[in-house]
Amino acid sequence: MRKRMVVSMGLLIALAIVVSGCASAAQAGGPLASVASQTNGEQVTRTITVTGSGTAAAAPDVAYVVLGVETIDESAAKAVRDNSEKMNAMMAALKAMGIADKDVQTSRYNMWLEQEDKPEARVLTDSQEQEAALRYHVVNQVRVTVRDVAKVGELMDKALQAGANRVEGVSFGIEDTDTLSEQAREDAIADAKAKADQLAAGFGTKVGAVYSVTEFDQGRPVALAQEIMPIMADSRMSISAGEISVNVQVQVQFEIAK
After folding, report:
1. What is the CA radius of gyration of the chain?
2. What are phi and psi of 178, to 5 degrees?
């Protein structure tokens, strides 16, 4: 009888040690407590991802005109001299229109030798044939920033009258596009919100807080319309500036309301 009591007391002591060890592990933040915390803390965030787009446009406030002079002569020195004289006359015409020196930048200066086909109509000596077959080309071009867009046509007319014979292109822009970008961004945000609300309503739920936002690179402003008419005999060159547009795209991830 006494022996059975000893065994029972031993089992009680062993159970007490096990329970005590478990309690100590729980108080110390051991494996049992960590697993329970991870299990209870798991939450899945449900989201809706949409892309919003916005565009804003305005009339350009600056124009860029590339024009210049090309001269051709059998003498390299004369080709260079003629080119310089015509370029100086053209630059004087630009200055008379109020174009500042800082707004005129050389974009190209090139000189090359052209080999003509041998003449067949008459017989030439070797020296005459060589002289007739060589012509020197000199090209000098500048990029002009025109801050009064309404004067672009007049500027090109006067440059041509002064001696310019090359017009490589006309482009328009807006120097400060921050205001346009802000307007386009507001439209893109509103577009994204409207799309998210429509999608959520379609699935019988509502949009919650914003989870993440990404803005895409908007790139360079784009000219919506641009027209260049060739110069006429008795009329000024006609230039249409059109509008400049800025596009902004945003990708927004919304939480789905519980």
Report:
1. 40
2. -60, -45
Q: Enumerate residues 6+ apart whose C-beta is below 8 A from 237.
A: 153, 156, 157, 229, 230, 231
Q: Are residues 188 and 199 in the same domain?
A: yes
Q: Which of 170, 97, 168, 100 is nearest to 139 (CA)?
A: 168
pLDDT in tens, 64-81: 999 999 999 999 999 999
- Indicate if the pLDDT at residue 139 is higher than 80: yes
Q: Which two tokens stand for residue 218?
A: 């908007």
Same domain, 168 and 250: no
Q: What is the pLDDT of residue 17?
A: 38
Q: At what angle do helices 2-27 and 31-41 cross, to 10 degrees?
A: 50
Residue (of 66, 63, 65, 103) closest to 244 by Cα position: 63
Q: What token pair was written down for 99?
A: 């174009």
What are 226's two structure tokens?
């641009």
Domain count of the fold of the chain: 3
Say yes or no: 165 and 74 in one domain: yes
Residues 70 and 101 in one domain: yes
Tell me: the pLDDT tens digits for 204-251?
999 999 999 999 876 666 554 444 433 333 345 667 788 899 999 999
258 has a pLDDT exceeding 50: yes
The angle formed by the CA atoms of residues 230, 240 and 242, to the nearest 5 degrees, is 150
